[in-house]
Specification:
2 copies of one chain form a homodimer. Chain A is α+β, with helices and mostly antiparallel strands and 193 residues long. The first copy, chain A, has helices spanning 3-13, 19-28, 83-88, 109-118, 120-146, 149-159, 161-166, 169-176, 180-187; strands at residues 29-34, 39-41, 49-55, 57-64, 67-75, 79-80, 95-98, 102-108. Chain A is built from 9 helices and 8 strands. Chain A binds a DNA duplex (30 and 30 nucleotides) through helix 9.
DNA sequence: CGTTAGTTTGAGAGGACTCAAAGTCTGTGG
DNA sequence: CCACAGACTTTGAGTCCTCTCAAACTAACG
């Protein structure tokens, strides 16, 4: 897939970019195609890249008491980065790994900030992308807060039906905040009396 | 407090605004001083206002199975709105009520969007404010997800020590996702053996 | 096919919930 | 300035959902 087409997709789905901005973006970004399980960010690093998923998917996870907790999924058409690090210039708690063979558009933090300052349209794109994430997190807080394991699972299926097909149950379990065993029981229709 | 000074505070703490932008903002916004318990947004409304808290505080809550769940606090120097409605132009699930006698700067959604399009600096301010909220929500998801009631309470105290003095325990309990009774027990030192 | 990763099933324990009641604080009126 | 009402918080007892630990089952891959 040509880089122009990818940038056009971004421009269409997030915020319209001017030709000059698209051109600047094109010059400063590059396409990566990586294997499943490749790690594009590792815990402790300063995450100085932003990625746009062209094809495939990724998950961000962190370790809590030695357990792998999935905190975020990103698939085609979505941006992904270690947000704790990218926005605060601190070492990240996250590792981001690819769930499938994946094609990414890679943009450096430096580029993002430069384009953000130079082009109003790119700032807008950033604002819209961040707003989208904020609203998604908001709904997640509401879902996690006072719902049963079954309800949280149902909420996820409704919000992102594709995830179930593409992600291991282990990761879905930690994403919605239940143990793998509980998730397995929930999914068994007998459980729902 | 003069409106110029409030806008200057915003400009200093979020993103520097040009004189023209500050002027436009000044013309289109107004100061409100309201009593404790006043509701600035009600469930079911289209929230067409954004507020900046000059003095005082507010909480956003929603009803779940008849129970009042606090979802957000805002105090001096923070923006507050019914974000589900404000950004998606849909009726809100939230009611926002003042916790104290409060002074607010009120800005209409129309103004926000107009200034966002007209001034790059205002777009930037929006991006920064939204990013701040996004990161806060992110930490909240992590805190809620796999922590005990005591840990969640401790996290909140560390993140916002002022809240405990200014907000009822009932609201703090629902904010961190535990019952009032559990919160009360947690706060009793005897409980922690 | 054997090996390993991933998922399901089982049994028992525990943290937080619910329902209930007793305290404690705060503000208003006599 | 005290007393009472209502709001808020604490304490108690019992229950239940989800967790933990353990083991069996299943699928995927070389």
């Amino acid at each position: 897939m040509y880089i122009e087409k990818i940038i056009e997709t971004i421009s269409t789905s997030y915020a319209t970019l001017t030709e000059e901005c698209k051109d600047d973006l094109k010059k400063a970004s590059k396409i990566l195609t990586l294997d499943k399980e490749a790690k594009i960010v590792k815990e402790g690093q300063f995450a100085d890249k932003l990625y746009f998923v062209v094809r495939g998917g990724a998950r961000a996870y962190y370790l809590k008491n030695g357990k792998d907790i999935t905190d975020w999924f990103a698939f085609e058409g979505e941006f992904v980065s270690a947000i704790d690090s990218f926005f605060q210039d601190s070492p990240t708690m996250y590792t981001i790994e690819l769930l499938e063979p994946t094609t990414l558009l890679q943009i450096s933090r430096e580029t993002v900030f430069a384009l953000t300052n130079k082009h109003h349209c790119f700032e807008k794109l950033g604002r819209i992308a961040v707003t989208k994430t904020m609203l998604e997190l908001q709904e997640r807080v509401v879902s996690i807060q006072f719902e049963s394991a079954l309800q949280k699972y149902t909420n996820l299926i409704n919000a992102r039906p594709d995830i179930i097909q593409r992600v291991q149950l282990t990761h879905i379990a930690s994403y919605i905040g239940v143990t793998l065993e509980t998730l397995s029981r929930i999914r068994n229709p007998k459980y729902r009396i």
